[in-house]
Please model this.
Amino acid sequence: TTDCIFCQIADKKIPANIIYEDDLVIAFDDLQPKAPVHKLIIPRQHIATLNDLTPDNSQLIGHMTLVAAQLARELEVDASGYRVLLNCNKDGGQVVFHIHMHLLGGRSLTWPPG
Ligand code: AMP
Ligand code: ZN
Model:
């Protein structure tokens, strides 16, 4: 949607350091990285939250996961380890309402998250 920051990144209307894109998804650097590797993988399609996913999106979410794993290999955090996650709504800490998969790595991540 026009007022969505991640739709605007997908449409190249606002800049981002895009590291991967295909017909379904775009991946780019998180603006405020929380780890040495912090990338976001988003669908081109606007989907506000995980709650809005439908069975029609099964292939899309699977593809996002495979892209995350491929990027982890390319960024050489696959062996050391990394975390892939989606935040949903207020308690999940979601602030941008266009679903995005975080890929975090390059340091030892604490568990559980805060
Ligand atoms: P979440 O809290 O899961 O909604 O995550 C939103 C993420 O988007 C945060 O990690 C932000 O640093 C990141 N972010 C917000 N705006 C931008 C932007 N214009 N370019 C890249 N990353 C962004
Ligand atoms: Zn959007």
Q: What stands out?
A: The radius of gyration is 14 Å. The first helix runs from residue 5 to 10.
